[in-house]
Every structure is written in C-alpha cells, then in structure tokens.
Specification:
The protein has nine helices and eleven strands. The protein has about 250 residues and is α/β, with parallel strands linked by helices. A hairpin with a 2-residue loop joins strand 5 and strand 6. The chain is globular and about 50 Å long. It starts with a strand and ends with a helix.
Amino acid sequence: MLLVAENIKKKFDSENVLEDMSLEVKEGEVVVIIGPSGSGKSTLLRCLTQLEQVDSGRVEIDGKLMVDTINGKAQYADSNKLHEILLDVGLVFQNFNLFPHYSVLKNIVDAQIKVLKRGKKDATHIAIELLKKMNLADRGDAYPCELSGGQQQRIAIARALALNPKILFFDEPTSALDPELTGEILKVIRDLARENMTMVIVTHEMAFAREVADRVIFMDNGLVVEEGTPEELFGNSINQRTKDFLQRYSES
C-alpha cells in the first residue's frame, strides 16, 4: 500500500471531525471521497498532507511512518522524516493558491528550486513541458490574475506535478469554478488517471466520481460509512445513509 491511515481521530475544540477514520490506497489507484459538507473529507486530506495534526491514529506513506499513537497520544516522526514524507505528496486546493506576483512559469519553477533544490535550467524545462501538457504553453509569462479560474487550477496542478509526488490529493478541485470551466479540470484528472497517477480526490461531481474512480468512499460524521467500486456504490449501495445522500444529489 502506498498510503495506510488507521484509526485517525481529529477534534476541533469539542467537535469530533474525524472519528476512527481509516483509509488505504494502492499505487496507481484513484480513490474518490464523497459525502455531505462537514463530514470531514477536507480535514482528512489536511491531516494526510501535514497541514493539520491528528489527535491519534497511524499514518504511513510509501513505507515511511508519519505518525503513530503511543500511550494514547499521537507521536510524529522527526522533522527530517516528515520533510521526506512531504516530498511524496502533492495537494491541489480549491482556490489555486498561486503566488499572484509571480508569473505562471515562475510559480512552477520556484516551487521546484525551493522544495527539490533543482537547478533553474532543469526546473524551467520541466515547467515548460508541464505547461504544454496542460495546453497552456503560451501562458508562461502571464500572471494568475490574467487567467481564467480553470487555467489557474491547471497551473496549480502543473506546479504539484513538477514536484514528482507519489500520491496527489485534490480537495474539491472544481468547486471554485464556473460550470463551463469544470470540464477542463476533470479532463486533466482523467488523463492523470490513465497515466496511473495515484490520486485521492474529494469531489461533489458525482458523474465524474463514477467515471474516474477505482474506488469510491462515502464519508459522514468523520467516518467511512460505505466504500466500493463506482458500480457498487452508485448502483447498488447497501447503507441507507449512502442511498439518501445519492438520492438527494440525483434530485438536485
């Protein structure tokens, strides 16, 4: 398994956001997480990418132990190991998180130089190739404010890919976009899936989830309620809570 998360618990103030949450992801697998707002989906991604610390549980990424629970308390690996693990993961946010005062090319190049200590020549070559892949080869000198939301999100994906992550997390990658721009982002993710990129995707796009996922997880109240293939979850779900959620989506 490329990712193993076991019995993750996370509380904000007195509210349990993740309650005994477990997740495994194989190399090359696309796992899509669905569920109502407030079910803990985004918090789970933030815990797996070290943006939040778990209260208890165990997380291992590519065989490297990030955190384990000893005597009831979460104990994280040392800073060197955490940095090493962080290099294995990429996270694409809802709202792009590009540097507005950097050009498109500089956004992608500087991330490589800073994080991977890659030389500027190599970093620039990689950035240019990724811009071609995103059909944005002519926008390297543009600034984020000059791009559409869909273009900005493609740049954010290119920046994440430039760091060679072993697993890529997407947190509602289309939620900040107009409907007509959503398709271009979903196409990029579909292409990555065909290239066997390991991905965990939180989304509210049910048709997309059904199409691209190897496995779909339905979360509610910080727990995995049900999981299975898209055919199993969307076509023959067992849990009533899952059925109710999918029924509401089909009616909206």
